[in-house]
Write a structure and sequence with these properties.
Helix content: 25-40%
Shape: globular
Largest sheet: 12 strands, mixed
Oligomer: single chain
Distance between the termini: 13 Å
Radius of gyration: 23 Å
Structural class: alpha/beta
Strand content: 15-25%
């Protein structure tokens, strides 16, 4: 069996100029990065020739080690839409180097449903993440330099909330002490690093609608507090112009292609368990601008990525999806039913029956909380039996939702044609009544409770005393009207990763609450969420190599 990278390397790519011509990108907005990558100037969005294509969100059941194939389905669906004659553009996130070298390997789809050039996309690509990290760390350097040079703003070094970042899983950097070595080397203080995708700069980057909006958001970043507890912003430090200069090219969406030549924007990449988990607003709007259908995805399960896509990204950008695709596998559902990964190859209707409620809760949320039309896409494996498939179809039909089998990993766009036809039907015939899970005027606690009860299926929320105090302070500072971005485990509806399926009778514990004023949302930390992952015992990096011709191997 060929690996993903072998399949990608055997593909004959079209020149990126041909892809740009296919979707009608004028030359004056097109910036080529080699033969197969380009950036498209965001100013194209201000031109009058807009299709305002239908927006399709791809999300998934709660993830398991068995894998669900959400990105693969997103790409295969787009190729399927193209095969049935639709003008379609994909919008995806850029992979972070942390997972590429850590647990997951590459993240550009799989099998015969990939975006290419796969190696470039998974590694440095066009340098966007480096620019984001540089802007983040420039701000950190200016904070410490301000204190060293006399601290005119009266920043309390013990209350600096801005951390440095690096796009790598490195647990050693979670907590550090810096400024050591005597007076000329800075002011000693406790500090730490986040992974770049967890930086507020990444969240801002993906929500900004223009350069002016980017600058305004950067200026609002709160980096810490003064001795008399007043917030200090990046604007106060006069850092905004230089940060924007570092980001001015990065914010232009990156244009690539699928294995079948479907145009794809790959731009931005915040994690969905610790951030909002969606590609950039600019890339999504660009896909809608150039295509009749824009297919995008949100990270992890629908309780994280889809909730944040709908409650944060759509609210901020004024987007309304036309349809939602819910990705599932029978193997993953059987894991939610209590089976081990080694037991998934045999038919087991009892375990499947126990695991299906996980899928059904996600589907019900899309239909009954957000009021959007949806379809379940089951990624079929050779070990799946007809009886197991019939059981899923029956249970979903009881909710009024169709199930379509997908074989895009093995068959590419051909395996996504049936799914494509159902998506077109939903977009053309089913009219949703898109509704958020909470309203702007609700208090922060009411918003948090709405997500926990309506989306997670929990009974309520417990707050540590520190979180209670933080919420009161944020509301006093005028941030009560912001959306909430709940950070929790991706492996369960609850904040306990061991509670699989569709658990009931649980409460979510909020440990910490902080403002991302530039991004425009309040981050709510639950469970044991960390913003700097570590590498596993055997990292994926050990399998990656380059031969004498420069050909990369082992990248998934």
């Amino acid at each position: 069996m060929k690996t993903d990278i072998e399949i990608a390397q055997e593909c004959k790519l079209k020149p990126i100029t041909e892809i740009a011509e296919r979707v009608g990108v004028p030359d004056e907005y097109f910036e080529q990065y080699g033969k197969y990558k380009a950036k498209v100037d965001y100013n194209l969005l201000g031109t009058s020739k807009s299709k305002n294509g239908k927006l399709v969100l791809v999300t998934a059941m709660t993830p398991t080690p068995a894998g669900e194939g959400k990105t693969t389905t997103t790409i295969g669906l787009a190729d399927g839409l193209s095969r049935i004659g639709k003008n379609v553009v994909v919008a995806l996130r850029e992979p972070s180097l942390g997972p590429v070298f850590g647990v997951k390997g590459g993240a550009a789809g799989g099998g015969y449903a990939q975006v290419v050039p796969m190696e470039d996309i998974n590694l440095h690509f066009t340098g966007d993440f480096h620019a984001i990290g540089a802007a983040n760390n420039l701000l950190a350097a200016m904070i410490d330099n301000h204190i060293y040079q006399g601290n005119a703003l009266g920043i309390d070094p013990r209350r600096i909330t801005w951390r440095r970042c690096v796009d790598m899983n490195d647990r050693q950097l979670r907590y550090v002490v810096d400024g050591l070595g005597g007076r000329v080397n800075g002011v000693p203080r406790e500090d730490g690093y986040d992974i770049t995708v967890a930086s507020e700069i990444m969240a801002i980057f993906c929500l900004a609608s223009s350069v002016d909006d980017l600058k305004a958001r950067l200026a609002r970043i709160i980096v810490g507090y003064t001795y008399d507890e007043k917030p200090v912003t990046a604007g106060d430090l006069k850092a905004v112009g230089a940060m924007t200069a570092l980001l001015k090219d990065a914010i232009k969406p990156n244009l690539v292609q699928t294995l079948e030549g479907t145009p794809a924007f790959v731009h931005g990449g915040p994690f969905a368990n610790i951030a909002h988990g969606c590609n950039s607003v600019m890339a999504t709007r660009m896909a809608m601008h150039l295509g009749d259908y824009a297919v995008t995805e949100a990270g992890f399960g629908a309780d994280l990525g889809a909730e944040k896509f709908l409650d944060i990204k759509c609210r901020t950008a004024g987007l309304t999806p036309s349809a939602v695709v819910m990705v599932a596998t029978i193997r993953a559902l059987k894991m939610h039913g209590g089976l081990l990964k080694t037991q998934l190859g045999e038919e087991n209707l009892e375990a499947l029956e126990k695991g299906i409620p996980n899928l059904l809760r996600h589907v019900s949320n899309i239909k009954n909380v957000y009021k959007l039309p949806s379809v379940v896409a089951v990624n079929r494996f050779p070990t799946d039996t007809d009886a197991e498939i019939e059981l899923i179809i029956k249970r979903c039909r009881e909710l009024g939702v169709n199930v379509v089998l997908s074989t895009v990993w093995a068959d590419g766009g051909r395996g996504g044609e049936e799914l494509a036809r159902e998506v077109v039907r939903l977009c053309e015939e089913e009219k949703g009544d898109f509704t958020y899970s909470y309203e702007d005027e609700m208090s922060l606690k009411e918003k948090i409770a709405a997500v926990v009860k309506k989306v997670y299926g929990g009974d309520g929320v417990n707050y540590l005393p520190s979180a209670e105090k933080q919420i009161a302070q944020l509301e006093a500072l005028g941030f009560g009207g912001c959306p909430v971005c709940l950070a929790k485990t991706q492996y369960s509806f609850s904040d306990d990763p061991t509670r699989l399926g569709a658990p009931n009778g649980f409460t979510v514990t909020v440990k910490n609450v902080k403002i991302s004023a530039g991004a425009g949302f309040v981050v709510v930390l639950t469970g044991d969420i960390m913003t700097m992952p570590g590498l596993p015992k055997i990292p994926a990096a050990e399998r990656i190599d380059v031969d004498s011709t420069g050909k990369i191997s082992g990248l998934f």
